[in-house]
């Protein structure tokens, strides 16, 4: 047997196809194929002498779910930034005085009325350039006026401890007490006498009451006479009259160091000495008031 020898030619095959797939996975497609002629190729011949396939076609119908790619869900959004801390609001304060006019050395009550919109605890501080404050760190305190007259500012500062402060001020008017005036009647005496008459006690008791009410009161007792007699005699008589008044006041509890006696004799007549009707009025003791 001789070996089978076959001459093989190159075959060119071309295919064209189209496939459509629905998103749900179903698809349909079709295509055609074409081969180069094979009539000169023994391996493609059939027994009947026909030649091999020249062209063919196909149709595809099916379902394919496709490739599912896992896509993780997006990460949650970051939390919002924390809200900024609320800004501190300062307190408010008002100051009052009671009374707002005082005499030197006297006292007035000063009061602070404060509020804080944030509810912070407040501290108080009172200051003044003059006078004194009993409790300067309290909401209410006692102010004692200086011994000088004039308007004195009293200031309160409140602090919330967080940088917020507020101030208020009152002016307290410091005055001197009005000068008290005392007028006492003269104490009259009989001619050439220095004993007190019964009606003299009424005048002197008024002086005792005034001395008791005002500790700063001082009295000078002046002794006077008419012009009858020598000047030396009348000077001594005036001294005895002044001492009689002074001794009565001391007997009623007046301290002797608050009294002073002096005699002017006939040197300072208050009335005319030409007639007896007026001359008798010069036989007297006068009470002169001094306020220390």
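^ Assign residues to that structure.
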């Amino acid at each position: 047997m001789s070996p089978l020898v076959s001459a093989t030619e190159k075959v060119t095959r071309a295919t064209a196809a189209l496939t459509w797939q629905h998103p749900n996975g179903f698809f349909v497609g079709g295509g055609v194929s074409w081969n180069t002629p094979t009539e000169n190729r023994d391996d493609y011949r059939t027994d009947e002498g026909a030649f091999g396939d020249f062209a063919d076609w196909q149709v595809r119908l099916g379902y394919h779910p496709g490739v599912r790619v896992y896509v993780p869900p997006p990460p949650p959004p970051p939390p919002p930034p924390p809200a900024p801390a609320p800004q501190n609001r300062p307190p408010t304060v008002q100051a009052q005085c009671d009374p707002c006019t005082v005499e030197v050395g006297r006292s007035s009550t000063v009061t602070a009325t404060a509020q804080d919109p944030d509810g912070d605890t407040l501290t108080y501080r009172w200051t003044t350039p003059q006078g004194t404050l009993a409790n300067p760190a309290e909401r209410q305190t006692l102010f004692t006026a200086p011994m000088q007259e004039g308007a004195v500012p009293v200031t309160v500062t409140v602090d919330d401890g967080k940088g917020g402060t507020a101030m208020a001020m009152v002016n307290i008017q410091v005055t001197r007490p009005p000068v008290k005036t005392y007028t006492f009647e003269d104490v009259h005496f009989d001619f050439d006498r220095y004993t007190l008459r019964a009606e003299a006690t009424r005048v002197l008791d008024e002086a005792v009451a005034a001395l008791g009410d005002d500790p700063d009161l001082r009295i000078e007792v002046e002794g006077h006479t008419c012009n009858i007699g020598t000047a030396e005699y009348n000077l001594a008589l005036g001294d005895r009259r002044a001492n009689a008044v002074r001794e009565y006041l001391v007997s009623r509890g007046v301290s002797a160091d608050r009294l002073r006696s002096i005699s002017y004799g006939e040197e300072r007549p208050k009335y005319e000495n030409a007639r007896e009707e007026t001359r008798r009025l010069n036989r007297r003791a006068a009470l002169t008031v001094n306020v220390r």
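Residues 92-175 form a domain with the Immunoglobulin-like fold (CATH 2.60.40.10).
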